[in-house]
Amino acid sequence: MKKIHLFLIIFLFAGFSGYAQRNSEQDFDPERLKAARIAFITSRLELNSEQAEKFWPVYNEYTEKREANLKQMASLYPRRGQAALSDSDAKKAIEKRFDIQRKMIEDEQLFVNQVSKIISYNQILKLNGIARDFTRMIYQKNRQRRSSNN
After folding, report:
1. Sign of CA dihedral 72, 78, 81, 86
2. Contact call for residues 47 and 111 (beta carbons, < 8 A)
3. Where is the signal peptide (predicted)?
4. Cβ proximity of 42 and 52 under 8 Å
């Protein structure tokens, strides 16, 4: 168990040091970022190898659905420079947003039901914060990289 955590931590920091040293946005590697996210969350949730093997397919499916719903919701809002919506179109957009939000809640409930068979409810509760910590860390590394390049 300690070997797995040590490996994940080493992999995580090696991935981030390479990621932080990149000089251009063209060098962005989504596979490397995905591997770093897996290592970070697996380590912070303290998943054993059996749990991780079962957890990641369920989590990935859930996050794909969530991201698709968020994109769909963002597309409902008029962009700068676009003509204003009529009141009836705005009402339809708001109703569609509520439909998407309901779907997102249903998806999250399904996810919790599925993943609770793999990890504890305490781990599930921590998951959202850990995922945000990872995102925050990536933003900070990018800011540091940009400020050191300027």
Report:
1. positive
2. no
3. 1-20
4. yes
What is the arithmetic mean of pLDDT over 86-94?
A: 91
Structure tokens at 92: 């339809």
16-25, 82-91, 125-134: the lowest-pLDDT one: 16-25
Q: Closest Cα partner for 43 from 142, 126, 139?
A: 126
User: Coil, helix or strand for 47?
Assistant: coil
What mean pLDDT comes out for the span 132-148?
Answer: 89
Q: Kindly state the tokens that stand for 45.
A: 């949730």
Q: Which amino acid would we find at residue 33?
A: L
pLDDT at 22: 47
Are the C-beta atoms of residues 123 and 29 closer than 8 Å to each other? no
pTM attached to this predicted model: 0.73
Distance between CA atoms of residues 111 and 45, nearest Å: 16
